[in-house]
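Example record

Each entry pairs one chain with its bound ligand, zinc ion.
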Amino acid sequence: MLREIGEGAVVQVHENPYSSNTYIVVSGTHALVVDPGISTTDEVCEVRRFLEVSGVRDVYVIHTHMHFDHVASTAVLRRYLSSRGFRVLVLHHRSEAEYLERGDNYVTLAVPFFDSVLEPTQIDLVVTDGYKVSIGEYTVEVIHTPGHTIGSICLVVPKLRVVFTGDTVFSDGVPGRVDVPTSSPRDLVSSLLKLRSRLHGEYLVLPGHGRLYRGLLEELIERCLRYLA
Ligand SMILES: [Zn+2]
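Structure tokens for the complex follow.
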């Protein structure tokens, strides 16, 4: 189900309760799709129809990190969109791209957590901290926030005062788990401090799971830091 959440963003809540949220931002003929998640065929079609109706031609699919519940449907979404004439680019942080391209089933948690298999997923553009992508009138900036996984990123859209936090920060002030392959509690603390130093004031925080948060980002990060202390 696709739902408007304000500030030009749309969220897809999936039938599969383990799937991440999927977020879409449209501007002009460009769209940003954050974390395709674990989609049913109907859900993939719903995204395609939404992009068609919105007049989108260029789709940037970006993952907040490599976990199966965030990336499982990227390959199929790309096929659906490409077959309808969309130009699709899939972006991922440099340190994890190879796991997706070779369809790693363990580091991505496909087998141990989801009893599933990850389709190898081509990455068109590897991104690093500070990378910027233009989506119509918006600039989307990558902040590398390792901790939950080595290549976790947050995405900031300054003009919308929106930040996509993946599994780094959740809306209840709890950070993502740090007991999975490539995760590091120390790196997560550093990443939270980095986020706090870069982003100030009110934001709409759109996490990988659960509800959104609207308010002072510093307060949310403070709660996560206390949780980890
Ligand atoms: Zn995760």
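The helical segments are 41-53, 68-71, 74-83, 97-101, 110-114, 185-198, 217-228.
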